[in-house]
User: Fold this.
Amino acid sequence: MFKKIAVAYNESAEAQRALLSAIQLAKSLGAELQTITVMSNLPAYTVFAGVADPSLPRALNEDRIRFYKLLQENARRLAMEHGLDVLTNAIEGSEVREIVHFLKLHKADLLVIGLHQRDFYVARLWSTVYELAQEAPCSVLGVH
Assistant:
């Protein structure tokens, strides 16, 4: 049924649960698994910090890249512990637009996303998860 599974993956507890569920599902189905991590941009105030120390923005960017590489290594390690290979992908840009583009480009059958617990119905309407569920060109599995 599902041959190419993608999981939206970041440092959140919800994404960790989604990754674990995606690993188990991919293993049981014999499916290919890929993670999609949208790297956050540096905060705007780093420009001001660069005035005081011109090397600071570059150092902060290197730290940001190191952080995402470590996050991807953790995903690969978790998958290997469960006997599965995972391809990790780090992309930059708008979360929803880039994930949807990735899903189309890689012809994913299923997107696994972690669900946040929210108290207000209105908050769910503007969440990234809700927007992804509406825009994804494939089935979406939300994991609590």
